[in-house]
Specification:
This protein is of the alpha+beta class. It is built from five helices and 18 strands. The radius of gyration is 21 Å and the shape is globular.
Length: about 350
């Protein structure tokens, strides 16, 4: 079981033993309800990026977690853990799998995020990547925990048409607040959105999520869920790198691209955030997919550029955009795995 971090502004009562609750016997006076077929897979509801938190009592707030979106299926035959793209990663999260077996429920689909926490209790995408062995790695993560924030199917009943408030009520009964196991509840926070965002940024978090309490669960980016970030972080395609004999891994900077329609457009470069191991792994991967010509229109004046096939997707943190559409103050966070099905940033 994952050990809690030493300092934990987001976590409490870490010394209490983790115990799964006993399964509740069925009340024989309860009528038998028709059962809904259990979906094999559900496309996730995605949060729409907004610059400011929404106002009004119809909105609930949570911390924004920085990891891999997963759905955990508790089925009669066992546990399945699926990525956002539908790939089976059960074998890569054995602790989460075991914790799901202990849940007091016969069948369920839980929606959440696999994360690794730093010593301050903050989710760290780089630490999660390391625990899995990097992009394309085959390692089993012993450090990842599952922060669950929605319940889509529960004991034979499809909950997607139920309001979020109802789904959360059932979820909080299934996964109690302030739990310290490998499946933990992403708690709703009663606060003014603007004040919560300020507090989240002061604690070094990525941002917050706002969700409509009266909304059903709808797949895709439909606006029922909103994300408000402290620092911008998005996925970009690596299209080349600038050689440097002085830099780690001989990578001076990575050249990045965003999507525009059916093609790619140059979005600037990133030259910070690399650890030595990151740079060396990147160099090995990029040397296998080099190109003689740029894979996109490029009119820059950079020297010693090695172009590569647009096959690697990097998560990049940045502060803003320049007037000519380039990233400002960019920092490398890690590579996204293809099976994570990360959404590449799109420009108009």
């Amino acid at each position: 079981m994952t050990k809690p971090p030493k300092a934990k502004p987001l976590l409490q009562d870490a010394d209490k033993p983790v115990r799964s609750r006993p399964r509740r016997p069925r009340d024989p006076t309860q009528p038998n309800l028709l059962l809904d077929p259990m979906p094999n897979r559900i496309d996730p509801c995605l949060a729409l990026l907004k610059p400011k938190p929404p106002k009004g009592p119809q909105w609930a707030f949570e911390v924004k977690w920085d990891g891999y979106r997963l759905s955990v299926h508790v089925e009669p035959t066992g546990i399945r853990i699926l990525t956002r793209g539908g790939h089976d990663w059960t074998h890569r999260f054995p602790a989460i799998q075991q914790a799901a077996l202990w849940l007091p429920v016969g069948t369920a689909i839980l929606d959440g995020e696999a994360v690794v926490l730093d010593e301050q209790g903050r989710s760290d995408f780089g630490l999660l990547q390391q625990s899995l062995g990097g992009r394309g790695g085959k390692k089993v993560s012993k450090e990842a925990i599952f922060m669950v924030f929605d319940l889509l199917y529960f004991d034979g009943h499809d909950l997607r048409n139920s309001e979020l408030d109802v789904r959360r009520h059932l979820l909080e009964d299934l996964v109690p607040a302030e739990g310290k196991g490998d499946i933990r509840l992403s708690e709703e926070i009663e606060a003014d959105g603007d004040q919560l965002l300020v507090s989240a940024c002061e604690h070094g978090l990525e941002g917050i999520i706002a969700k409509r309490l009266d909304s059903p669960y709808r797949s895709g980016r439909v606006g029922d869920w909103l994300k408000i970030k402290c620092v911008q972080s998005d996925s970009f395609v690596i299209v080349g790198y600038e050689k440097s004999t002085a830099a780690r891994g001989q990578i001076g900077s990575l050249l990045l691209a965003a999507r525009k329609g059916d093609g790619l457009v140059y979005a600037g470069s990133v030259g910070t955030g690399f650890k030595e191991r990151d740079a060396l792994q990147l160099r090995v991967m990029m040397e296998k997919i080099t190109l003689k010509t740029p894979p996109l229109p490029y009119t820059g004046a950079r020297k010693n550029v090695v172009w590569i096939q647009p096959a690697l997707i990097a998560e990049i943190e940045y502060r803003a955009w320049t007037d000519d559409g380039k990233l400002r103050h960019a920092s490398y966070k890690g590579l996204r795995d293809v099976q994570d099905n990360a959404a590449i940033y799109e420009v108009d």
